Amino acid sequence: MISNLRKAVRLPQPRTRGVDLSHPARSPLGTAVVNCAVYVDGVRQDGNQPADVAIRRVRESGRGFVWIGLHEPSEKEFAGIVDLFGLHPLAVEDAVYAHQRPKLEHYDDSLFTVLKTVRYVEHDRLTDSSEVVETGEIMVFTGIDFVITVRHGGHGSLGPLREQLERVPEQLALGPSVVLHAVADLVVDDYLDVAAAVQDDIDDVESEVFSERGSGGAGRIYQLKRELLELKRAVAPLDRPMRELATRSMRQVDPQIKTYFRDVADHLARVTEQITAFDELLNSILQAHLAQVTVAQNEDMRKISAWVAILAVPTMVCGIYGMNFDHMPEKHWTFGYPLVMTLTVVICWVIHRGFKRNGWL
């Protein structure tokens, strides 16, 4: 029953598929409540139901669980659900106002998980102000008979994920922890996709820095480092919650799902290693760029110095013969001027040839 869990929750590129607006998972129930459904033995029960009716139905029968999906709820919109499910006020405040770091917290009979979603922002060419990584948040309240997902941001829709899970009811029958795992797995998969796209940008900047033109600007490198830091803030803090879900015994997490949280943690560690490597590579690229700038400036200074040395010869000669003394025999000699000019040109040519041979010109 559990052997196909990985396949069901990790379908290839679910975010690029067409959206079926007639599917129940797309049917909004209000301003913030995107979906509310009851699942018994992994099968979605007919019709969208109010949250109070849904949870009463589950608890009276002692079977199944409720999955409520919300998008950027206000405090007022969330109030009814808070009272109904007995959610902790601190977790509710985090879920409403967002801007939290990834974490896992235990509150009585529920878990509160915060995950940062990321999306790669497509662009024709990276500039000094290009936004590369856009972040959002998904909060998940996980109980014995309910799971509540709260999404913030314009990306990271969970509609396709709900549809995928509904196609494999034997997995949903394991309970709310399957949903928590599927959400975490989807978020980490997005990290991998974004990391791959960021690597392409780094490769482009690296190629330009080491090209003959050397046009890779420091501003673009710094911009990539800033965006990489944004990605790191989403990825790095999530490692501890995933490890805890994979190793610690919790009533809200089915023992069969813990192995799959270890798989998510491994993928997360891979992304963390990639980000660290990217940061080190960008430091190296930046140092190489600055070294190139220094070398170019030194080249320019050497050329200027060489030409100054060459021009010093005629300047000196002209300075000598510009002195107004009466007893300067060369001034009255017929071949004095041609000889001095020829000698000046020869000396300048010899100096120029020497600088050329040494690579200064």
Give an overview of the whole structure.
The chain has 361 residues and is α+β, with helices and mostly antiparallel strands. The chain has helices at residues 5-9, 51-61, 75-85, 89-97, 159-166, 169-172, 176-209, 218-235, 239-247, 255-320, 336-357, and strands at residues 33-40, 43-44, 65-71, 103-107, 110-120, 133-142, 146-152. Strands 2-1-3-7-6-5-4 form a seven-stranded mixed beta sheet, with helices on both faces. Helix 7 (176-209) packs antiparallel against helix 8 (218-235), helix 9 runs antiparallel to helix 10 and helix 10 (255-320) runs antiparallel to helix 11. 33% of the residues are buried.
Low-confidence stretches: 1-30
> How much is the radius of gyration in Å?
35 Å
| Largest sheet entry | 7 strands, mixed
The structural class is: alpha+beta
Number of helices: 11
Number of E-state strands:
7
Strand content: 5-15%
Mean pLDDT across all amino acids: 81
Strand order of the largest sheet: 2-1-3-7-6-5-4
Distance between the termini: 76 Å
Strand/helix succession: HEEHEHHEEEEHHHHHHH
Blueprint (SSEs and pairs):
Blueprint: H1 5-9, E1 33-40, E2 43-44, H2 51-61, E3 65-71, H3 75-85, H4 89-97, E4 103-107, E5 110-120, E6 133-142, E7 146-152, H5 159-166, H6 169-172, H7 176-209, H8 218-235, H9 239-247, H10 255-320, H11 336-357
Helix pairs in contact: 7-8, 7-10, 8-10, 9-10, 10-11
Q: Could you give a short description of this structure?
A:
The protein is of the alpha+beta class and 361 residues long. The chain has eleven helices and seven strands.
